[in-house]
C-alpha cells in the first residue's frame, strides 16, 4: 500500500553521470532535506562503427522507471522534477522535434585536432574573451565544427540543438529550452551578456539558428506531459523545474559555508577545483592558465579548472581486477598507508592517462619519462595517484588565488571523493589548509535545493545552503604541521613535472 508523507514537499532529482544515473527522492520537511535513492542504472559510452555514443533512449526509459517507482510507493503529489547531467554533449532535433541520431560521447575522437582548425579561422584569444571557457577539445563548439568539417548530414537537417539535460527535459515537458549553467560550457555563450554568441558561430560557418531560448536555473520551463505522467502512474499537474542542469552547478549550489574565503572541489572521476565569484575573469592571465568561467546558479560564476581526479585510481583498480586482484577501496588505502610517502609523482592531466589500456603501466612509464622512481607495488601506485592529485589541487588553488586576488582559508570538498579519507587528508597536507568534506550527495541536494527555491519552499540560496548544513554531516581534515616541509619539497618537484596548459 503506498505511503503518504504529510507536511513535506517531495521533489525528484534525476542525476545523470557518465558512468551511472539515478532518480532520487528529496523530502523537504521545512527544516531539513532527506534523500532516498529510488532507482539507479548504469550509463556509459556505446561504440558503433568506430564512434562513441550515448544510449539516450535507454536513459529516457530509466528516467520513466524512476518516476513510476515514486508513483508506486507514495501517494503524495510531487512538488517538482529536475534533471542535471554532465556538460557539452547534445542531441539534434529535426523540424518535427524528432531526434536525428544518438548523441556523441565527449570522449569520441571526432574532435581530435579540431580546436586548431577553429583557431585558424577565429583566434583562441578572441574565443576565450567572448566565452571565458577553458580550452577542452570536446567542448560543444568543437563537436559542431567536426560535424561541419565532415559534412555530417545531421547538422544540415537539424533545427534545434539541446544539451543532454535539456533534451530529456524536452521529452518531459514538450518545451525546447537551454538552461544557462550548462549552456555556458558550450563555448558559444557570451559570458558578459549571458546570451548566445550567435555571431561567433556564424564566423565559423556554424548554424546559430539551432540555439533554443535560454532560461535561468530556478525557473519552471513546463509541467510533466500528460502521457508521461499517465504512463508513470503520477497524478498531475507536476511542475518540471530547471535546476543547475550542469551537475557541477548543482553540486556547488549545495556546499554549506561556501564564501569568499573558501574554495570548492567537486571530487569524483574528474575534480572541479574552483571559486564562486560574481563576475567572470577573462584576462590574459586567465586564458594562459586555461581556467574556465562557468555559469552558476542565481547570478554566480564558477571560476574553476577541470583536473583529472579519481580516474587514475579507478582505472588502476579496474586493471588489477582484470588481473584477478579485486581490491576494495579500503584495501587500497591500507596498502597505500604502508608505502613510503611522496616517492613517485606524475601530472594527473598528462595525455598518457586519457585512454590507457593499462593505467598502472602508464603511470610507471610516465615516471620513467620524468625521471621519477617507478612505483612497483600496489600501495606505491595508489600513493602516487592520490598524492599527485592532491599536489595538482595545490597548483590550481595557487592559480585561482592569484587570478581572483584573494587568499583561500578553507577547502570544501563535495561529491564521491569527499568520502575518500586518504585523499582528503593528502589535500589538507598538500595545500596547507583545512579541508571540510561533505556532502557526498551535493549534486542531488543542489538540484533539489534549487527546485525548492523555485517552488517557494525556500527563500534564497543562502537559506538553502544553511538547510543543507542542517541535513548532512561533514568532516574536517586539518593539515599536519610536522609534514609541511615534506609536502613543500614535493610540490617544488611536482611543478617541474606538470603539463603546461593547452
Question: What can you tell me about this protein's structure?
Answer:
With 502 residues, this protein is an alpha+beta fold. It has 3 domains: 9-242, 2-Layer Sandwich (Nucleotidyltransferase, domain 5); 247-308 and 390-495, 2-Layer Sandwich (Nucleotidyltransferase, domain 5); 311-389, no CATH class. It is 39% helix and 21% strand. It has 19 helices and 21 strands. A 7-stranded mixed sheet has the order 17-18-16-15-19-20-21, with helices on both faces. A 4-stranded mixed sheet has the order 3-2-1-6, with helices on both faces. The protein is globular.
Topology:
Elements: E1 9-16, E2 20-28, E3 33-42, E4 45-48, E5 51-54, H1 56-73, E6 78-84, E7 90-93, H2 114-121, H3 124-131, H4 140-149, H5 153-157, E8 160-163, H6 164-173, E9 178-179, H7 180-183, E10 189-190, E11 195-196, H8 198-203, E12 214-215, E13 219-223, H9 226-232, E14 239-242, H10 247-253, E15 262-267, E16 270-277, H11 284-289, E17 292-295, E18 301-308, H12 311-322, H13 329-338, H14 359-370, H15 378-404, E19 410-414, H16 421-431, E20 435-437, H17 442-454, H18 461-471, E21 475-477, H19 484-495
Parallel strand pairs: 1-6, 9-12, 15-19, 19-20
Antiparallel strand pairs: 1-2, 2-3, 4-5, 7-8, 10-11, 13-14, 15-16, 16-18, 17-18, 20-21
Helix pairs in contact: 1-9, 10-17, 13-15, 15-16, 15-19, 17-18
Amino acid at each position: 500500500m503506498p505511503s503518504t508523507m504529510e507536511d513535506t514537499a517531495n521533489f525528484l532529482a534525476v542525476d545523470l553521470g557518465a558512468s551511472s544515473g539515478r532518480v532520487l527522492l528529496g523530502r523537504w520537511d521545512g527544516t531539513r532535506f532527506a534523500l532516498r535513492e529510488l532507482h539507479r542504472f548504469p550509463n556509459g559510452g556505446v561504440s558503433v562503427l568506430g564512434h562513441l555514443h550515448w544510449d539516450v533512449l535507454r536513459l529516457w526509459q530509466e528516467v520513466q522507471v524512476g518516476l513510476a517507482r515514486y508513483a508506486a510507493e507514495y501517494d503524495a503529489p510531487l512538488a517538482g522534477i529536475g534533471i542535471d547531467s554532465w556538460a557539452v554533449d547534445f542531441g539534434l532535433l529535426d523540424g518535427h522535434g524528432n531526434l536525428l541520431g544518438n548523441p556523441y560521447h565527449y570522449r569520441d575522437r571526432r574532435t581530435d585536432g579540431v580546436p586548431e582548425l577553429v583557431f585558424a579561422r577565429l583566434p583562441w584569444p578572441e574565443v576565450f574573451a567572448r566565452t571565458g571557457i577553458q580550452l577542452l577539445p570536446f567542448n560543444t563548439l568543437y563537436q559542431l565544427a567536426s560535424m561541419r568539417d565532415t559534412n555530417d548530414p545531421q547538422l544540415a537537417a537539424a533545427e534545434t540543438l539541446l544539451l543532454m539535460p535539456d533534451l530529456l527535459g524536452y521529452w518531459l515537458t514538450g518545451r525546447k529550452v537551454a538552461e544557462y549553467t550548462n549552456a555556458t560550457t558550450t563555448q558559444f555563450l557570451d559570458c558578459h551578456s549571458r546570451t548566445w554568441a550567435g555571431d561567433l558561430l556564424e564566423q565559423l560557418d556554424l548554424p546559430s539558428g539551432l540555439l533554443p531560448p535560454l532560461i535561468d536555473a530556478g525557473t519552471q520551463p513546463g509541467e510533466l506531459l500528460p502521457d508521461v505522467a499517465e504512463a508513470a502512474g503520477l497524478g498531475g499537474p507536476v511542475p518540471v523545474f530547471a535546476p543547475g542542469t550542469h551537475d557541477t552547478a548543482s553540486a556547488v549550489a549545495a556546499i554549506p559555508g561556501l564564501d569568499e574565503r573558501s574554495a570548492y572541489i567537486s571530487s569524483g572521476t574528474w575534480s572541479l577545483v574552483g571559486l564562486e565569484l560574481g563576475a567572470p575573469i577573462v584576462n590574459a592571465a586567465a586564458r594562459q592558465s586555461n581556467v574556465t568561467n562557468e555559469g552558476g546558479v542565481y547570478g554566480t560564476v564558477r571560476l574553476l579548472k577541470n583536473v583529472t581526479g579519481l580516474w587514475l585510481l579507478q582505472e588502476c583498480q579496474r586493471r588489477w581486477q582484470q588481473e584477478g586482484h579485486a581490491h576494495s577501496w579500503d584495501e587500497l588505502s591500507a596498502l597505500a598507508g604502508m608505502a613510503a610517502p611522496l616517492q613517485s609523482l606524475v601530472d594527473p592531466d598528462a595525455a598518457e592517462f586519457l585512454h590507457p589500456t593499462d593505467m598502472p603501466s602508464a603511470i610507471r612509464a610516465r615516471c620513467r619519462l620524468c625521471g621519477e622512481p617507478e612505483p612497483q607495488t600496489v600501495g606505491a601506485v595508489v600513493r602516487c595517484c592520490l598524492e599527485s592529485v592532491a599536489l595538482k589541487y595545490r597548483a590550481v588553488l595557487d592559480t585561482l588565488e592569484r587570478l581572483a586576488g584573494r587568499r583561500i582559508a578553507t577547502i570544501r570538498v563535495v561529491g564521491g571523493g569527499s568520502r575518500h579519507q586518504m585523499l582528503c587528508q593528502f589535500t589538507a597536507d598538500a595545500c596547507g589548509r583545512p579541508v571540510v568534506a561533505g556532502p557526498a550527495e551535493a549534486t542531488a541536494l543542489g538540484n533539489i535545493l534549487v527546485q525548492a527555491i523555485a517552488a517557494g519552499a525556500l527563500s534564497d540560496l543562502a537559506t538553502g545552503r544553511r538547510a543543507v548544513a542542517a541535513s548532512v554531516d561533514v568532516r574536517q581534515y586539518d593539515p599536519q604541521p610536522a609534514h609541511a616541509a615534506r609536502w613543500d619539497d614535493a610540490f617544488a618537484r611536482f611543478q617541474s613535472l606538470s603539463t603546461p596548459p593547452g
